[in-house]
Please model this.
Amino acid sequence: MIAEAWDWAARVTEWGVANWSHPGESDRGVLPRLTEHMRLAYLSILIGLVLALPLGLACARWRPLYPPVLTGVNVLYSVPSIALFFLMLPYTGFSDWTAVVPLALYTLVVLLPNVVDGLRQVPDHVRQAAVAMGFGPLRRLVYVETPVAVPVIIAGLRVASVATISMVSVASLVGLGGLGQLILSDGFRRQFDAPIVVGIVLTVLLAFVTDAVLVLAQRLLTPWTRGDGGGAARPRRRRRAAVPTGADAASASAGTVGPEAADAARARYPVRTGRGPGYTAEEGRSWTS
Amino acid sequence: MDILTDLLAWFADPAQWTGGTGIPARTGEHVYYSLLGLSLSAAVAVPLGLVTGHTGVGGFLTTSLANFARALPTIGVLFLIVLAAGIGLVPVLCALVALAVPPILVNTHEGVRGVEPRLRDAAFGMGMRGHQVLLRLELPVAVPLILIGMRTAAVQVVATATIAAYVGVGGLGRYIVDGQARQDLTMMLGGSTLVVLLAVLTTLLFAGLRRLLAAPGPRTGAEAAR
Amino acid sequence: MITFEGAAKLYPDGTVAVDDLHLTVETGQTTVFVGPSGSGKTTSLRMINRMVEPTGGSVLIDGQDVRRRDPAALRRSIGYVIQQAGLFPHRTVRDNIATVPLLLGWGRAGARARATELMELVGLEPSQARRYPHQLSGGQQQRVGVARALAADPPILLMDEPFSAVDPVVRASLQDELLRLQEDLHKTIVFVTHDIDEAVRLGDRIAVFRPGGRLAQYDSPERLLAAPRDAFVESFVGYDRGVRRLSFFPARELSLREDVVFGDGTAAGTAAASMRGEPWALVVTDDRVPLGWVGAGQLARVPADTALGSLGLAPYGHTFAVGTDSLRAALDAAVLSPAGRAVGVDAAGRVVGVVSQDDLGTALWSVTE
Model:
């Protein structure tokens, strides 16, 4: 049994190595699929982020704007990517945009609540202290609110990037490239498991590596959150939940300053975790008080 | 706007609304697979999550599992299972369950873990036994979070059930697959539209369910804190 | 009667929470465990209902070791109130209160009827029965917590810092309420707090715990304030323990002077003549409602036939009730009075007499001996 599994794993690995790239045929092999995958995923994430920041800022600034935007975001979140890809076809054909537009939207959807909550979560006493010291709205945004929001925004970005990277595979069904093509064309259509496994493994690896890079970026950008030694690798149990999507996220991911917010928002499913020392804005409102 | 007209014509065609390949039949299949997949997942994940949450055993495992599952490409999992187990409803269900269990499991686990320690303390202090604490306190308090997990799973299942048409079963994905095969763009778009509608409906359904199932107490309070 | 026989709790990491505790909690009394954090008071309390199992010694209720009883059954027979109440967020106020009766199998109707009864007992409006805990104020939640603990009419009530999360005004009213309840119910109450004032106010007996889980002193509140056993207890009960201790002595034993109390129609000369060296006189109405103080110097400066009521009087300040207040209240009234003298009144607020500083001083000396 174990020996068989080893054989199988070895066979899959051998296939991956043998087909990594084909000199002279730049479009064949695993590597071109991987680079395609990265291109589609990172482009989507980048566009989503660029859209989410101003929109989130606007929602944080003009509060009545947020609930309707959030409802829209919630509905969008539920739409399966495969349907969106096909609905894009008449407009964008087989270009990258067929995948990038829905995936960027998806990133936006995941990220927006985090941006808004991140900007809003500055404790009131801190905000008032800033006003009292003579900070204007813009200065406050740059020096107070944005730095506090960064961990929450990156937390959302981590969720969005992992989800996006895994969803790019679906784009192969429309006829686009990426690791999904490896899974579909080389694997499933030929009834051959090695390309499927290689595709899955590389997708997961890509997601994890991206996640790790984002964690690193967060630690570099926000040195003040490192305090409790909460490792990048494993979020410890923390109390606050973050549901970085839709209405749940609206009330969800805010509330913590510091690493717990970042780690709490790690999962796409809300992961609630242990009692942290962090500032919890909603604590006072909850039934417990 | 040709596409829109074609699409409307496709929907208006009475032939679409009857027979084994009609919209009602396909939608029915899709809902059937989804419901079956979701119920199976819930039947596995909710009790498991309740137990791991209550005992605190396997917390690390569930969280890691969820993180891993989130990164898994759906089509890879589906195709691999079908490749290993053959074409048919059972392999498809296996894939659906594999993808839907993690969000429900994690949310149930975390929902139970998230019950404030002093509530648990009060419950035991009043003389509740372990199972009573689980069923009378932890489960009801975890319901909103469990429902969020179920919704995530449901959306996932509806999407994956669409892809399942690629491995030879019915459902709304058939319009997409058959449309692709026949180079019939309208059919593909029609199928996609139906999938979108079904997915949005699912989300709305869960929003309603949450209103119904979650006691008003935690809904207004705990959710605000969530 | 609850008896700790050398009870100890040692955690695997070496922390000693409770160290060899010997203590007897009398039936029908309120016993307060007080101490700084980490002194093992809560751990000791939780040994009683087996929320914590001792690692050494034992805890007996009426002579029976609690470890010989099924924990769930034991706990159902003991009321338990915790900080911030710990109400179930998904149950209404009424169903929260009915929890233990339901566990005991009273049936829904019986449990709810009992809950309604208890809401009245703890001073909650019947209209709040269907509310959820988060819709109540902190003080109301705590009342529900007490009602829930009393629901099955347990002979023992364990209260773990129940009032620490509410503001001082609400806390005082909850303390009053508890004293009133206890007068009727005569439960065996074990109450944990870190607030020595709360302990003195509520306790029939007070156990002071010191860090490291050792009992520092176990005494009545008066004895504790009068004779702290060591420096730790002394510093814990506070620098003004002497003044606080006066709360335990009734004001009715003070000697009150009537000769410096005059009606507002009295002539200044008459008053001055009968004051015999006292610097201040109290002016009252015909119904003996206090009006204010007049000084001897002021009387000397006005024509002898001036009515006292027409003079500018100094405000009479605070009064104390002779029949019900303590020496502490009398002292307080004297300190706050511009004349430095306390005005004693009866239950209807009519002046009984004035306590001179000499007399107050004598009384204070007599109790501090």
